[in-house]
Specification:
By secondary structure, the protein is α/β, with parallel strands linked by helices. It has 23 helices and 29 strands. The strands form five sheets. It has an eleven-stranded mixed beta sheet with strand order 7-6-14-8-9-13-10-12-11-15-16, sandwiched between helices. It has a seven-stranded mixed beta sheet with strand order 26-27-23-22-21-28-29, with helices on both faces. Strands 4-1-3-2-5 form a five-stranded mixed beta sheet. Mean pLDDT is 91; it is low at 376-394.
Length: 772
């Protein structure tokens, strides 16, 4: 039978996931000749044989792809038969601009985990075991195509045994680029805080285990940066870590050995377990169990813990060696970027720790752990019946921080664009994104750009993401706020720019999350974002799609006394809302008991030229302060988090009598929470439990938001509500809104793959800019 020859171009996440070995084995099984190679756009398969065998190869490439592969498309073109014999993996080709999806970092697989503890295996106890199904990817890649020479593993020449595995098609390490062993690969060292070597190899791991058991603080180099670790069961050790890290209240993440230990500490839904045990290995926030053997300082005053399972061989060795839950928090001072460069880690972390467990495999790009929250309401569609839950939370999960294990996985747009876009995000929880063809690709979590070190990380991320994706931006999208460093970067880039309103970007990111582009009634509730009118928005109802938006409603504006100082001192917003909702006497009565500067702030509130805000986030801050929970915060959203936590045990929907006022002003719907604030103050005076006050506030506001959104949707001929902004990380508020909107027969979109907070702003900006 006459042989045919075809060229298959496979696009998507197909490098660094064992795809070439997979194609090789299929081709050999089918008796085909030819070659497979990486190039800057994906994988190229030149293959010759019988037509039916070529058809089968094309089908099986899609149907049987390796577990970590994500195929975006297969293009097949005929070619002239060459008459070759055998099938080969050839050197990668770097011609053309990069268009390949960069693989994400993934946790150690079960096969490698078994080798790690097998006494007879040559990699027994080796902290850098990996294969084509697991290990570092994004954090070690310098450029594409993804080959060892283009990673930070390039300095390590494989020994004969590793080279044999790498070249053996029957071996699961066939073309595993980070392949290594104790003979030829990286090694760990335990350092004194001044950098002096205390121990190496196995003795270094053993020394770290001893230090942790003794209550010492140990810096541990992971996949995307350094962690700071202590025994989570030792109160003195946890307190000392807080002191050294200058982290007063923000909860610490925990690393637990296995799912059984996770269940012993938290109430986990099936969805939470699935994420916890996935190859992405995020931190999962889940309700804690009473009486857990942990130091109270791990998550002071909060009903949730952040858990993760070990995801590197080194983590497994530490977890097994200690047999304890370990605090595993980012290696930095509060608000700084995580340390990933060894010299920087020694300089910044050395004064904070008792020992440093490091290694000589460089991390090219820092990448924080991803964070998901358990118990978030899954998306409800039209016709779904609402449910009320008493004392429990819904069973889904919500993305809070999208980083290691998820970034830079592409997210498909509804339609492709010929424009190449760079979007530089906002000031807080910054990420950057690019658009090329069908996809938007978001970076890892960068952090808050108000810190110089974070801004330097931002610059690196922009360069790295554009280089890996081959994006030469035609336009740079940015926030409207002129003082954001990301905005200043965009306007100084000597490229065409597009300013995107903050809350429009929030709703656009929710649409991208769901593969939508049609108009919706968007509810964007967050802290602060500049509106086109120069005021600070944050409680918005928008008719929006990817092409534009129209503001149709908002929360009542109140003075933002002190600007950003009001974010750090919620009592200022409490004073403003007390004055607005009740009157100056109520504001004075509150202010006298909370801060000696109350009179000056009240005068500021009453000045007509004080900036106003419609911020829902600042409303939550105010209510938390009025409840006596948190007049000042030590981390972002602390007051709102504690207000939600206060009502966790209260039945959902029980406080039906809490109401708001709704009016119109020049055709704009205005939602006035003043009656809620008045009720909060009155209930506090009566001595009502804060849990009941918080529940009433959440339920009353949620019902009002749902009713107003449904009404505005009907007025504008829309059947879908999209919820976005950091306030919708609040499980209770989201549940009330979703249930009530769904009961009205409308579809509800909530975030799934992307966070509702500012971490997805760059995605929304990118999608909007791609349409212009």
């Amino acid at each position: 039978m006459t042989a045919e020859r075809r060229r298959l171009r496979v696009s998507g996440t197909v490098q660094g996931v064992g795809f070439r070995p997979f194609v090789y084995r299929l081709a050999v099984e089918l008796g085909l000749s030819g070659s497979v190679a990486n190039d800057s756009r994906g994988v190229i398969v030149d293959v010759e044989g019988r037509g039916e065998d070529l058809d089968e190869l094309a089908c099986r490439i899609v149907d049987e792809a390796p577990p970590l592969a994500r195929i975006a498309g297969v293009e097949m073109t005929p070619d002239a038969p060459a008459g070759g014999t055998g099938f080969h993996i050839v050197d990668s080709r770097a011609a053309g601009a990069p268009a390949v999806a960069v693989p994400v970092d993934v946790a150690m697989c079960a096969d490698c985990a078994a080798e790690l503890v097998a006494l007879t295996n040559r990699r027994f106890g080796y902290p850098f075991i990996n294969c084509t199904n697991c290990g570092p990817r994004y954090t070690i890649i310098l450029s594409v195509p993804y080959d060892r020479a283009a990673t930070t593993m390039a300095p390590f020449a494989m020994c004969a045994d590793c080279r044999h595995e790498y070249e053996d098609p029957a071996d699961r390490r066939f073309h595993a680029e980070p392949n290594a062993c104790p003979v030829c690969g990286p090694h760990v060292r335990l350092l004194e805080p001044d950098g002096t070597v205390r121990a190496e190899r196995q003795a270094a791991v053993d020394g770290a285990v001893v230090a942790l058991a003794a209550g010492q603080v140990v810096a541990v180099k992971g996949l995307g940066g350094y962690h700071l670790a202590v025994d989570a069961g030792q109160p003195e050790a946890v307190a000392e870590l807080r002191r050294r890290k200058a982290r007063d209240d923000k909860p610490f993440a925990l690393m637990v050995a296995d799912v059984a230990q996770a269940h012993s500490l938290c109430r986990l839904t099936p969805a939470a377990v699935a994420e916890l045990t996935s190859v992405r290995r995020p931190i999962v926030l889940a309700p804690r169990r009473e009486g857990s053997p942990l130091a109270e300082g791990v998550a002071p005053g909060l009903p949730e813990l952040g858990l993760m399972l070990p995801y590197t061989p080194l983590h497994h060795l530490l977890s097994e060696g200690t047999g304890r839950a370990l605090v595993m928090t980012s290696g930095n001072l509060s608000d700084e970027p995580i340390a990933h460069d060894d010299a920087d880690a020694l300089a910044r972390l050395g004064p904070m720790v008792d020992a440093i467990l490091t290694h000589d495999r460089a991390i090219h790009i820092r990448c924080d752990d991803s964070v998901l929250r358990s118990g978030t309401q899954p998306t409800l569609r039209s016709g779904t019946q609402p449910t009320l839950r008493s004392g429990t939370q819904p069973g889904g999960v919500q993305m809070v921080r999208r980083s290691r294990g998820y970034a830079p996985e592409p997210i498909a747009l509804v339609r492709p664009t010929r424009r190449q876009v760079l979007a530089v995000g906002a000031e807080l929880k910054n990420t950057v994104s690019v658009v090329k063809g069908h996809n938007v690709i978001a970076s890892h979590h960068i952090g808050d750009l108000e810190h110089l070190a974070a801004y330097r990380s931002f610059l690196q991320a922009v360069e790295h993401l554009c280089r890996l994706t081959g994006v030469a931006p035609d336009v740079v999208a940015h926030d409207l706020h002129p003082e954001y460093l990301s905005t200043k970067f965009a306007t100084e880039a000597e490229l065409p720019t597009l300013g995107v309103q903050h809350h429009h970007a929030h709703i656009a990111s929710c649409l991208v999350d769901h593969g939508r582009e049609d108009p919706v009634l968007g509810v964007a509730f967050d802290g602060l974002g500049m509106g086109p009118d120069g005021t600070m928005w944050g409680g918005e109802f928008l008719v929006a799609d990817l092409d534009g938006f129209r503001r149709v409603g908002h929360l009542r504006p109140v003075p933002l006394a002190g600007g950003n100082q009001a974010v750090r001192e919620p009592w200022r917003m409490a004073l403003a809302w007390a004055r607005t909702a009740v009157g100056p006497e109520a504001a004075e009565a509150y202010g006298r008991g909370v801060d000696e500067r109350w009179a000056a702030v009240l005068a500021m509130v009453e000045r007509p030229d004080t900036m106003v805000t419609t911020s829902a986030g600042r409303l939550f801050d105010a209510v938390a302060a009025l409840c006596g929970l948190r007049p000042r915060v030590t981390y972002e959203a602390q007051a709102a988090i504690e207000l939600e936590a206060a009502c966790a045990a209260e039945p959902l929907g029980a406080a039906q009598e809490w109401e708001v006022e709704v009016s119109t002003d020049g055709g704009m719907t205005v939602v006035d929470p003043s009656p809620l604030v008045d009720r909060v103050i009155a209930e506090r005076a009566r001595g009502t439990a804060v849990s009941r006050i918080s529940a009433g506030f959440h339920d009353g506001l949620g019902r009002a938001v749902a009713d107003v959104a449904a009404g505005l949707a009907a007025d504008n001929g829309l059947d879908t509500i999209a919820l976005s902004g950091g306030v919708f990380q609040n499980i209770r508020l989201t549940q009330v809104v979703v249930d009530r909107v769904a009961a009205a027969g409308l579809a509800v979109l909530t975030h799934e793959r992307l966070p509702p907070n500012d971490g997805a702003i760059s995605v929304g900006q990118a999608a909007i800019a791609a349409r212009t």
